[in-house]
Amino acid sequence: MVRKRVTKILLYVLNTALGLLFLFPLLFMFVSAFNPARTLPSQITSLGDFLPAYFTFDNIVSVFTRIPMLRYFANTLLYALGTVVGVLIVNGMAGYALAKINFRGNRVIYNFIVIMLIIPFEGITLALYLVVRTLGLLDTPLAVILPSFFSCFYVFMFRQFFLGVPNALIEAAEIDGASPFGTYIKIVVPTAVPVFITVFILEFIGKWGDYYWPMLTLTSEGWYNVQLAIKEFSTASPYHWGTVMASLAVVTVPVLVVFLCLQRYYIEGIATQGIKDM
Amino acid sequence: MNKVSARQKRINFTGWMFMLPALVFGTVFLIVPIVMCFVFSFTDFYMLRPESTLFVGFENYVDLFSDAIFGKAITNTLLFVVVVVPLQCLLALVLALLVNKRWRGCGVFKLAYFAPVITSMTVVALLFQIFYQRDGGIFNLLLSLFGVEAQGFLQDEGQAMLCICFMSVWQGAGYQMIIFLAGLQGVSRELYEAADIDAANAWDKLVHITLPSIAPVTGFVVIITLVGAFKVFTQVQIMTNGGPNNSTITVVYYIFQKGMSEQLVGYGSAISMLFTLVFVAASLLRGGAAKGVGLYRRYRERVLGGY
User: Fold this and answer.
1) Chain A residues in contact with B112 (beta carbon < 8 A)
2) What angle do the packed helices B138-145 and B121-131 form, to 10 degrees?
3) Closest approach of chain B CAs to the CA of A175, in angstroms?
4) Are the beta carbons of B118 and A255 separated by less than 8 Å?
């Protein structure tokens, strides 16, 4: 019994130490965001300089006044929500068709999508850039929204979920005279709310943090998302270390809030089929 | 010859209508780019002069073999993979074992380990860029406490890639931890109870019950970590731009540099094709390996009567 208690205490100590180590960079970021010191990094000479003398909102305010941060927030929200809506419609319908409609070609398409899961996005970016350019979408919101609509991974995920929906439910609706689309919207979708939330939050957080593709396709600052904005801001002068930290913190807070509200779905999404990166 | 019934015809129509949006977007933004990439890789397509594009056969691929920077990009990427994959998987496993308890407070620890995953790579990279600074960077200030002189970190050819590795391990381990946790929750309690009766200690339980039980999950975690590591880009683009002296240039960064910065789409496409081929080949190998393991298991079962 004593030994058990000792291991328990030991595990708590270990967890606390590791937890602090993991959180340290982020804590540092949040504390520094409120630090009144207007120093350049090279003016810092000891660890004590990192501790704020008092807390101030000046850094946060200057993030919003020196650059149009609200505009960048609005842009990012537009890209994230625009993408998510399309993702849910396009992949949800495809997943349903593959799971529950026995049409000719079903197996072929399913197998094809499983093979396509392997293709890394980074391998097709150059050609995708040219497609987007040919369509005249460069430097418009559609450049970051439309290419994300279809995703083999999400089709796969929806299909797996819809396979578990009882056929009797769908047949009953059809006997009642509902159209296939009506059945899908009124009967099937309400039973699949968890998978819709999971895809929503995976894609929303992904789009919020997206950097590579927006960097390639959005060239005017007016269309920047928050990630491009903070990268630009961190290289702009005057370089105040506190304001840069504030900009990083400001960009992180919304996504942390979304995560904390919907973490169960996010973690389920990763845990049960964490193959998004494949 | 059997006629397709009216009912089946209707089902076919419905199915294809449900697939239609996916087919349209998948064709335009996935299939077409793959085909274009393949075709471009055999041309000298230069984005500023697309009209003078010529077919050059395998020239791009041949050139790649003598391209020293491409070689550097491959070795750097492999270094990143070799350092990050084992460290991140091991760390993730340790974290998962640490929080896989029903005790109070474990949820908080789980969140702490997972927080860096939620933070975007851009934020993390910018943050660590500041930490790694020679003057006023927190790592150098910490080192100075122990009397170690200031290190170049990201400015040092020998250290830059390892600095990026270190940050990446910290940032991503929480993700793999979640998958490990899902695996750990599936381990049968009866096995542990039986071990308790045999008075097995914690280490024996870990080695003989936990690890074998989560072996498939471990394989899965290793694969997704490998796949992710091969694609390393954002950290490099933000923290070092491939420098100093190409010491952090990676394959994906090189695609970007050749294809976008220098606008040599033909050459960039050839690198892209090789990069994609590695993924396809690896997944074929994996399929083959899985089949091999399956055959071996069945053979063992037959010969040894199970295990």
Assistant:
1) 19-20, 22-23
2) 40
3) 14
4) yes
Residue type, B296: Y
Terminal Cα-to-Cα distance of chain A (whole angstroms): 46
B302 exposed, middle or buried (CB, 10 Å; 0-12, 13-18, 19+)?
A: exposed
Phi and psi, residue A200, nearest 5°: -55, -50
| 3-state DSSP assignment of residue B162 | helix
Chain Cα centroid distance, residue A247:
19
- Residue B55, classed as helix, strand or coil, is strand
- pLDDT by residue (tens digit) across B57-101? 888 899 888 999 999 999 999 999 999 999 999 999 999 998 887
How many other C-beta atoms are found inside a 10 Å radius of the C-beta of residue A177? Answer: 7
Judge: B279–A119 Cβ closer than 8 Å, yes or no.
Answer: yes
Q: What would the mean pLDDT of A257-270 be, rounded to a whole number? A: 84
List all residues 6 or more positions away from B110 whose beta carbon is below 8 Å from its beta carbon. Answer: B99, B177, B181
* Cβ pair B25:A90 closer than 8 A: yes
Instruction: Find out whether B149 and B134 touch, Cβ atoms under 8 Å.
Output: no
Q: Which residue type, as a one-letter code, is found at position A162?
A: F
Encode pLDDT of A198-242 as tens digits: 899 889 989 999 999 999 999 998 999 999 999 988 887 667 778
Sequence-separated (6 or more) residues with CB below 8 Å from residue B238: A211, A231, B121, B122, B125, B126, B129
Residue B49 — pLDDT band, cuts 50, 70, 90? Answer: confident
Annotate A197-256 with DSSP letters as a single string. Answer: HHHHHHHHHHHHT--HHHHHH--SGGG--HHHHHHHHHHSSS--HHHHHHHHHHHHHHHH
List the beta bridge partners of residue B43: B55
Residue B177 CB coordination number (10 Å): 28
pLDDT band at A274 (very low <50, low <70, confident <90, very high): very low
Place of tokens 């499983």: A114
Instruction: Determine the Cα–Cα distance for residues B262 and A74; give it in Å rounded to an integer.
Output: 32
Name residue B55's beta-bridge partners.
Answer: B43
Q: At a CB cut-off of 8 Å and minimum separation 6, what does A261 contact?
A: none
Q: For chain B, give every domain's residue range.
A: 1-36, 41-301
Task: Residue A49: name the closest of B135, B239, B116 by CA.
Answer: B135
Structural domains in chain A, sorted by start: 74-273 (1.10.3720.10)
**Which chain B positions have a beta carbon within 8 Å of A241's beta carbon?**
130, 136
Q: Look-up: residue for tokens 């890209």? A: A79
| A209/B105 CB distance under 8 A | no
Q: What is the CATH code for B41-301?
A: 1.10.3720.10
Gap from B50 CA to chain A (nearest CA, Å): 11
> What SS3 state is found at B104?
coil
Mean pLDDT for all residues in chain A = 87
Residues B89-138 have pLDDT tens digits of: 999 999 999 888 777 778 888 889 999 999 999 999 999 998 898 877 88
